[in-house]
Amino acid sequence: MPFSANQKDIHRKLLVELSEDIDDEQYLDNLKKMLSGDIGQGRLAKAKDSLNLMNTMENVGILAVGKYDRLKDMFQHAGLNGLVTTIKDAEARIRAERPSLEVRPMEAGTYETPGPELRRKRSRLGTDASSSSSFDSETFSPTPRYPVQVAPGFSSCVYPTETSRRSGLVVIINNFTEEREGTELDVRHIQSVFGGLLQYTVLTGSGYKDLSRELLDSKLQHIKDMLQETPGYSRFFLIILSHGDKDGIRTCKADGKTWDNKIITVNEITEIFRDTPLMIDLPKVFIIQACRGEDHQKATLRSDTCPVDDTEYLNLQMENLRIQISTPIDADNLVAYATTPGHIAWRQTNEGSWFIHNLCKVITDHRNEHFVDILTETSRLVALLTAPLESNGIKTVAKQMPIFVSTLRKKMYLIDT
């Protein structure tokens, strides 16, 4: 059943509160032993703290909103009876929150920092409890997830996630030279979600920043070679943050500070990964955060549209990015663009780009959903945003519409099914 935003919020705060009370390695090891029959040792080893462990329990369907029986049993066996009481209190609050019929399963999430009341230490444990997470909890809070369920007859239509493979490889190419307001936030958001929350391997940093055309070609070939190393990966994401024009992605001069007036097209990028034996029949995703021209996406204003506040101009920065229209011609590829052909993609200096910010938010809240559904929800959220414009003294607004082109032949999930 779908849950209301309040119910999800209670669940989310419960997990944070529990994690802050369990920082003893002995407790964590005992909890892992209790789960060894349901969760593989490799995945348990990746859970470095109690919050990670509960995230993993959600991934396999042991834990969800209102589904705490297994967790209570584990805490009882570990002698953490005080935490069992905490769970029961949360269960009562969840039951008291009756979701309305209008609540949808795909509600937009929010970035939220746990309040001070969640950070207090529990005296009943007799320790100074503290927690840490492998992802940035100041930006992304743990949120409820539903176990992936595939209808009978459709199981063969889901990309396999072999236990012998690593979950996913994510590479972030950040070509913004010295104009970095907002783009470094995009990198941090991507690292938090893919590296911390999903526990994928994420490659970024100086070796993947401000690349010339020659260095970019070499780097992409190196990435292809990595994909062919055993045991391999179940999923591959190449995320490019760059300037460009309608013909392709712009690259930098050797100094990494100015543009070299060279272009690499998305077709050229996908061509490099066409013949990758260990990725045959597995999904390859290319995410392009860039403008694809200089036109503003026009908006149809309703009569009740609020006036645009002049102060909104201060935080909005237009990216001179452009990307060629490109369709992946091989199977099992997906290319997601921040905006439609010919139009500008928007970036805020205090939040990052509209597209990446909302994509990370939707993944955080709905990471058990099919990836195409995640992109669709991201498009919906971005389409709601507006950027203030003024021409000849007339104020108006611009919009943005993400788009993706897919040759995926099966459903793709971000977590191991």
TrEMBL record:
GO terms for biological process: apoptotic process; protein maturation; proteolysis; regulation of apoptotic process. Residues 107-141 are annotated as: Disordered. Keywords: Apoptosis, Repeat. Residues 127-141 have a biased composition (Low complexity). GO terms for molecular function: cysteine-type endopeptidase activity. The keyword DNA-binding does not apply. It comes from the Eukaryota. Residues 10-89 form the DED domain. Residues 323-416 form the Caspase family p10 domain. SMART domains: CASc (SM00115). GO terms for cellular component: cytoplasm. Residues 166-295 form the Caspase family p20 domain. PROSITE patterns: CASPASE_P10, CASPASE_P20, DED. InterPro entries: Caspase-like_dom_sf, DEATH-like_dom_sf, DED_dom, Pept_C14_caspase, Pept_C14_p10, Pept_C14_p20, Pept_C14A. Belongs to the peptidase C14A family. This is Caspase-3-like.
